[in-house]
Design brief:
single chain; 3-stranded antiparallel β-sheet
Length: 385
């Protein structure tokens, strides 16, 4: 049996239509877009601008405000380290949440070591930060508020417009990490100041992403060199990758509603059938709006690691791909109130464009059988004492 892939939040396969668009830029149109004196460079530069326009259409942005990067990790580092100058006497306070992606949390921690003050706000059982907590946390020294659009582990979606309104009323910059949202749910830059995304989360290639900045927002560059991308991100542009993110954005824009509707039906069926078969199975963050293809499920009385060992035919994750293998309870799951044991009993299922109903049927059967096997082998509470 072929491996059934249910880890689309970690990464997606590149859509065949995207591959077709990228291929000529490896072997025929291989010019450097900074080469202004010949047709190879012109063709590459034109392809980059077409991709910029395609991504802009997906997120409702001005193409000129999009900077191509190597991915959201670079984009987030660029923003967080580029709007705060630890050596200056300017504003030196950042507000974010404890459930953000590691690229945000670790960037903030690096600034803390240089004396920048960071407030990490709690989230509720659905993974959402309250507007009241954000309003109370902001001060005259706050330069940036960073809240993710959608959570990569549990799928919960923040009311970004409402949060952004509260932040911008205080004349403070608002950054949203939209990595898991772009291409899956409607996303618009209308209410935010800075937004990041990565191509490989919506059927584009790895190694390319983007940062959108509102006009007037100044960010110090993280990389210096040839002043590409208006000086914000120096380095020779990854033309095939950029063509890929543009093509992926175009495909996603045309398929967004259809894909989301199908994913929602599949996700609900997965959860309902597993809950019917496994007493006590819990769906995390089920009470609020969430990504249509994401299910975070806590299996009672077993360890996720043991369950995954029995599910070699399924590609699944015990949490964020960036944190998998640590052996520690997920920071996000702990933030929404799960105990260590429950966090270590949780598996993320993330469906995708190429998940078939037949694959889902097979996966449900496999999970139920594996759970019963692992549960039967687990020590009884009396034996554990």
């Amino acid at each position: 049996m072929d491996l059934i892939y249910l880890d689309y939040n970690a990464t997606t396969p590149v859509d065949p239509a995207v591959v077709a668009r990228m291929t000529p830029f490896f072997d025929r149109h291989y010019g450097n877009p900074s080469s202004k004196g010949h047709a190879y460079g012109w063709a590459a530069a034109e392809a980059v601008e077409v991709a910029r326009e395609e991504l802009a259409e997906l997120i409702g942005a001005d193409p000129e405000r999009i900077t191509f990067t190597s991915g959201s990790t670079e984009s987030l580092n660029t923003v967080i380290k580029g709007v705060v100058d630890p050596s200056s006497r300017g504003k030196r306070h950042i507000v974010t949440t404890i459930a953000e992606h590691s690229a945000v949390v670790e960037s903030c921690r690096s600034l803390e070591r240089d004396g920048v003050r960071v407030t990490y706000l709690p989230v509720d059982a659905n993974g959402l930060v309250s507007r009241e907590d954000i309003e109370n946390a902001m001060s005259e020294d706050t330069v940036l508020v960073a809240v993710m659009w959608a959570n990569n582990e549990i799928g919960s979606i923040h009311p970004i417009e409402e949060i952004a309104r509260a932040v911008r009323e205080r004349d403070i910059l608002f950054l949203t990490d939209a990595t898991q949202a772009v291409g899956k749910v409607p996303v618009s830059v209308d209410s935010v100041d800075l937004l990041t995304c990565s191509a490989h989360k919506f059927y584009g290639p790895k190694g390319v992403g983007a940062l959108w900045t509102r006009p007037g927002v100044r960010v110090r560059p993280l990389l210096h060199g040839g002043s590409q991308e208006d000086g914000l991100r120096s380095g020779t542009l990854n033309v095939p990758g950029i063509v890929g993110i543009g093509a992926a954005a175009s495909v996603a824009r045309n398929r967004l509603e259809v894909d989301a509707a199908r994913h929602r039906i599949q996700r609900d069926r997965l959860e309902n059938e597993l809950q019917s078969a496994i007493e006590g199975l819990r769906v995390n963050a089920s009470g609020e709006d969430r990504l249509p293809q994401t299910s975070s499920l806590t299996f009672p009385g077993v360890r996720a690691a043991n369950l995954l060992t029995e599910l070699r035919g399924l590609a699944l994750s015990a949490g964020s791909a960036c944190a998998s293998g640590s052996g520690k309870p997920s920071r996000v799951l702990k933030a929404i109130g799960l105990s260590d044991s429950d966090a270590l009993a949780t598996i993320r299922f993330s469906l995708g464009r190429f998940t078939t109903d037949e694959q889902l049927d097979t996966a449900i059967t496999m999970v139920v059988e594996a759970y019963r096997k692992v549960q039967a082998a687990a020590p009884s509470p009396v034996a554990q004492q």
